[in-house]
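SUBJECT: A protein chain and its fold
Encoding: whole-number codes for local backbone shapes
Chain under study, with its fold:
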Amino acid sequence: DDLADFVQENSAAFSDYAGKILCVCGDSIAKGRYVLPEEAFPAVAASAMGMTIKNFAVNSGGYTRSGAQQVLTQINAAIADSSFDNDDVGIFLLSAGVNDINDGPNATTYAQAVRTAISTVKTNFPNARIIVTDYIQGNAGLTVNADVASAYIVYNNIKGACLLLGVECIDNAYAWGLSHASWFTSTGPSPHGDAVNADVLHPNITGNQYYAYYLLQYIAGNKFLPYFAPAPITAAELAAHTGQVCGCRVVNGNTAMYGYYDVTPPATPSSEITATLPQFMAGDSRAPYFITAY
């Protein structure tokens, strides 16, 4: 009801979508693993907007996966589905990448795979607003995605393909679940199983509702910024990690993660944070692509 109220309060932003189709391709998070189909975040968002959901995402999906797990295969399944008219798709959501990170992708191959997927959607769904998320990693952070170099390849090429092909990218979706452990606990009997709690990757019912809210915020024109608190960044720590995509330390539970995260400072950022972020951005040509001090 809260999501429906949000849509009603922002009716001008959603007026074009009621009665149309929201089509989804991607991974198990987009599919809604461990929750019912109608509880998956794309379906929750679609329902709030008065749209019909067509979800082709599969468990273990990714852009460079093979067979039914490949995003392009899912897109082709959507194209071939005779239960709806492609012209009636108002939003086409692509949401994958976390499984590709774990595969250790080749940058050239990965770039082509993402571009082909997006181009295929553009060609076959001419009326759709195409929205692509970067990879969604739940509350797991680097405990799941330990290979920062692979994460860089995935993030860079998803965002880069969107820029190249002129489609929209939600480039902070990796942070949607960070620091929200309660969104990944078991919520009851099958399909709401204990595995939700075990992998801290797949959101429960509550987590999916929040993910839907983030998606709706984006559709309404707001880049919703999940808040997670930055730990103090010392000059020595910064210097030790300048070879990475981002030298900022983000606290996720008890885990200190160095990596590739945007940072939302507190209301009054410490002088240490404001002093060191620009230094890092000036010292690494990749950093402006990834770091935004809000």
Summary: The first strand starts at residue 21 and ends at 26. Strands lie at 21-26, 52-55, 89-95, 129-133, 168-170, 246-252, 255-259. Confidence is low (pLDDT under 50) at residues 225-235, 237-294.
